[in-house]
Amino acid sequence: MLSVFQAIYDALNCAHATDKTALVKRLHADFHDGRIPFSDHIAPPARPGRPEKPVLVAPNEVPRRRFGSGAGRAALMHAVAHIEFNAINLALDMALRFSTAEELTDSAIRLAFLTDWIGVAADEARHFSLIENYLRENGYSYGEFPAHNGLWEAAENTSNDIAARLAIAPMVLEARGLDVT
């Protein structure tokens, strides 16, 4: 049986979007029900696994989305799906990277932090799955439209600072991305 940290690592490292969401859902259920043991902490991968598509471009190169057509609505929903996919990776990375941070002063706080971020990852996986299903029902799939990597770049820039990561990635950039989209 995998340990909690190995299960987080495996989900974070998974490159197939649908498989990643399944791994996160199983991790959450197993952790919540006490079916997954603790072991030594492991470091997160340098970058999360991600599919070959969408093609990542600079933020100013992402085409404008027009809502007057099916393709425009699909492009909008694809942008939201990409934000949610990145949010899965951000939550898993938070759990793996910072659950043993010295700022988290005791084991009860560390366990609560880990529990919360596994729960966030599961919520983001559910959101991604819902949007991915919408895209499929309308003849599209995740990866068909270009996207940018701004959320993960912010995560890389805050990889050594828990407070900066909390302030920048989920609270500002993810929220702003959803608002703008």
Explain what the structure shows:
The protein has about 180 residues and is an all-alpha fold. The protein has 6 helices and no strands. Helix 3 runs antiparallel to helix 6 (about 160-180). The model has no long low-confidence stretch (mean pLDDT about 90).
Compose a concise summary of this entry.
The chain has 181 residues and is mostly helical. 62% of the residues lie in helices and 0% in strands. The radius of gyration is 16 Å and the shape is globular.
List keywords for this structure.
single chain, 181 residues, mainly alpha, 6 helices
Ordered list of secondary-structure elements with their pairings:
Elements: H1 4-13, H2 17-32, H3 70-98, H4 107-137, H5 150-157, H6 162-180
Tally of helical segments: 6
DSSP E strands, number: 0
N- to C-terminal distance: 40 Å
| Mean of pLDDT | 89
Could you say which structural class the secondary elements and strand pairing correspond to?
mainly alpha
Unreliable residue runs = none
Biggest pleated sheet: none
Q: From N to C, what is the helix and strand string?
A: HHHHHH
Strand content: under 5%
Instruction: Give the fraction of residues assigned to helices.
Output: 55-70%
Shape: globular
Could you tell me the radius of gyration in angstroms?
16 Å
